[in-house]
Amino acid sequence: MGSQSTTRNGERCAYWDDPNIATYLKVDPWDSVPEMPDLMTWDVSNYCRWPKEVPKLKGESSNPTGLWCYVWHNEEYLTREECDVPACGEFENFHLCALTLPAVG
Question: Which DSSP symbol is given to 42?
Fold first, then answer.
């Protein structure tokens, strides 16, 4: 699935299991880590992913249409930022590329 952990704007991705994300989203911590397309939620670190069924953040009108991650801004507010990750097959280093399908299930 790739190991990129910065957004297209150069922002550092937050760790998916950061307990502060659950607090910010006002959800149960067990529900704050979305199901990941690679089925290894415990091993996604802060990598760009395209998880399914994530709560919308305040001000969002739609869900992301590609790989993204959460980004903290001044440790005060959270955004979802898109990532530019080359698709697998177009890139020599498989560990740095992305399968370009959303999670299913």
Answer: G
C-alpha to C-alpha distances, 61 to 12, 55, 57, 74, 102, nearest whole angstrom: 23, 11, 9, 23, 18
Summarised one tens digit per residue, pLDDT across range 40-93 is: 555 558 888 887 767 778 788 777 778 889 999 988 889 999 998 766 655 455
CB 22 within 8 A of CB 32: yes
Q: At 24, which helix (H) or strand (E)?
A: helix 19-25
Claim: this prediction has a pTM higher than 0.85: no
* DSSP assigned state of 22: H
Candidates 86, 87, 91, 79; CA nearest to 54 is 79
